[in-house]
Amino acid sequence: MATAMNGLPAGRDLKRLLEQAQKDYQANLDNLTDAATDEIETAIQRGDIDLKELVSEYARDASQLANEYYDQLRGLWAEQSSEPMPEFLHAKLVDPSRVLWQVEHGFSNTDFNGLTYQQVMEGRSRAGMTIDDLWPPLDNVDDAQQFIADMINASGRLTMQRNIKLDPTRPKWARVCGSAKPCAFCVMLASRGFAYNSQETADFGSGFHDGHCHCSVVPSWGRDEHLLARQAQWKSMYDAGKREISEAEGSGKHAAPKTSFKDVLAAMRRMFSDKLGDGVETRAPSLSPELDRRYKLSKPLKHFSQLTSKAVNPNIGNVPQGVYDPYGNNCQRCCQVAELRLRGYDVIAAPRGMYDQTGIRHFYISNWMTRDGKQRRWTNCAPRRKADSILKELESYPVGARFFIRGSWKTKGGHVWNAEIVMKNGRKTVKMYDFQGEDRDPDGYLSRVKNGGSSYIRVDDMFPSDALMDGHRLNFDTRLPKPTSWVIGAGDHAPTTSEANAAYWGPSDRQIDKSWGEYVRWSYSSPDAPAVKPNGREMVPKK
């Protein structure tokens, strides 16, 4: 058996080459993932491609990339050795079935827990389970895109793990986070640098939580534990977390043996909230403590596609023909409730009766504020320009940004609905949603809006206020009457048609003018800030 060759020196030039090789490999994986997610979306929409074979093909491509990267690193280190490295042939790619087993965790947490990969592949499952039984349904685009990305990352890791284990030179290895904002746990493990040996590869896979931090395995034949710039940064972050806990316990370095790694991770999440994917920001007091306490009951959703109009505005249409429907004229409530439900608030849209003036545009947008307690005004389409000219402006916002879109119809009246910036076929797209009623085509709304009659306001990075609660005044210095309800929660009374149409709300002309004078001093939306997910965390831009 060959002697281990893992104590070679690493000069400045070699470190630079290793750094560049790692960046190139990560970029290649990212590009492969981008291509895969785009292709599987197209394949699902067309419905004429074998999706399992498509996923398997990309898994094999990832294994090939990992093999090439391994050979590149081995060659760089071989130039530092006074002795030739023994030949190591490893051209065989990792079987996509093995990758599938890794990604789906085998048959764990099922009625067939205990089955091994070898038993399944050899047909020794008494229940007749096969590897094909592990394939998830690939009919949802978002889930399929996440799955193919996980398969690519896992295939690369398994290939590296296998090579390190079989290489006669017995290299050390390090965990390297590929995500721009990895989690604290992965940073802790990556902070060790090249401290893992080939005997530890058997435990490598268990430390991954579905690959969400895009961690990879990087081998090393050098004596140094930290060769990459990011490794030094991760070690610095972990050491800072340990110091924070030790100082908090008041006993300096002697506190370290008593310090739980979970406490250190918690400290890291607080200290480096902008650098960690699970960082915890020290937030200002909530703008909606009463709303949160009473209605924030559910986990946030991920996408508007998970919402339905029945969940947002279930009472629409329950009126006799010819009667004014207060639940069919409440779009300024529906758009807000859709955004609230996305964030985990268990509410539905309240009605707007025929004598209710809360539909005035600067009134209902006052319910939302930025983190520092400021408000925003609508960004209007230029006069006489086509209403859909705002689409160009919206596409300058980051993927994940969400909006209220307002339009004045060419015929009469107007409407307000929701929108989100999404990626479709490799380019930014503005996807429109209308949750007031079923069977609507909001993507075509702007063609029905008169020239200069459209406007938008960004809301993903804004926060609801308690002004949405019944009995609260609008967020103006001008003293306005308390408006009718904006939202209805479980246990609240849903006004009947007659009750809603009998209610009156209308400020005086002077009050409207004074509140408008406040509104025109508010700031406009900006595309500069990162998009904020419904769970309140910033989105990491996709490379």
TrEMBL record:
Residue ranges occupied by any Tox-PL domain in the UniProt entry: 329-436
- Could you tell me the superkingdom of the organism this chain comes from? Bacteria
The record's section on InterPro entries has: Tox-PL_dom, VG15
The UniProt entry, under Pfam families, shows: Gln_amidase, VG15
List the residue ranges of the region (Disordered).
Answer: 524-543
The name under which this protein is listed is Papain fold toxin 1
Q: Which organism is it from?
A: Bifidobacterium margollesii
Query: What lineage, starting at the top, does this entry show?
Result: Bacteria, Bacillati, Actinomycetota, Actinomycetes, Bifidobacteriales
